[in-house]
Amino acid sequence: MLHESSLSDAADRLWEELPGHRVEILNGSIVVTPPPDGPHQETCFEVGYEFRQAGAREAGLRAIPGIGLWLPTGPDDYAVPDVSVVDADFRDALVEKNCYAPHVFRLVLEVTSTNWSNDTAIKVGIYARAGIPVYIVADRTHDEVLLYTDPADGKYPDPQRFKRGQAVPVPESVGVTLDLSVDTLLDGDD
Phi first, then psi: what are they for 24, rounded to 5°? Predict the structure, then answer.
């Protein structure tokens, strides 16, 4: 791929050659993730459903899986979070390549897979620098859920940690009142 004209072109080519894989550019590096397993996708579906039931649409929000988030960390950087809660008018914030500006994102959820270190380390810094107000990590590797909120100066404070049997309270700043079951976030079902 050394003949590609840009990092972005190389990412596009990988996306075309690896159907079902998620291609992202994080801190100037291409990251390719294989298709998620069933419980991962079940979690994404359930979280979207929970937000809908909690009145997200009526609050002017949408819970969308797999929407592109343009990042301020590099000229071609973008992520594709597992689930994002965005303002209903997010379409007006299109940057390019089906990615939207960070200011329309209220919450981002990542469910760990084979790339768990990206979600629990790299993306923590990237999402904080992008100013994402709430970042939830369903860390299936360590059997816990991390809640990051209120980034300042490009960093999140230490996360709140939640174990099985607990619920993660979605911060009021997101725009809906909702508690997410840790078991559902980790397993996709109760």
Answer: -135, 160
Nearest to 63 by CA among 73, 50, 78: 50
Q: Is the pLDDT of residue 3 over 50?
A: no
Tell me the Ramachandran region of residue 55: left when phi exceeds 0, alpha when psi lies from -120 to 50, beta otherwise.
Answer: left
Q: Report which of 55, 53, 36 is spatially closest to residue 44, judged by C-alpha positions.
A: 36
Q: What are phi and psi of 45, to 5 degrees?
A: -65, -50
**How many Å apart are CA 145 and CA 111, to the nearest integer?**
9
Tokens of 157: 């404070």
For 113-170, how does the pLDDT look when each residue is reduced to its tens digit (9 = 90+)? 887 888 999 999 999 999 999 999 999 999 999 999 999 999 999 999 999 999 999 9
Q: Which residues of 29-47 are buried (b: 16+ CB within 10 A; e: fewer)?
A: ebbebeebeebbebbbebb
Q: CB burial class (10 A; 0-12, 13-18, 19+) of residue 65?
A: middle
Amino acid at 18: L
User: 132-156 burial, b if ≥16 CB within 10 A, otherwise e?
Assistant: bbbbbbbbbeeebbbbbbebeeeeb
- pLDDT tens digits for range 83-96: 999 999 999 999 98
Beta bridge partners of 186: none
Given a contact cutoff of 8 angstroms between Cβ atoms, the answer to whether 69 and 130 are in contact is: yes
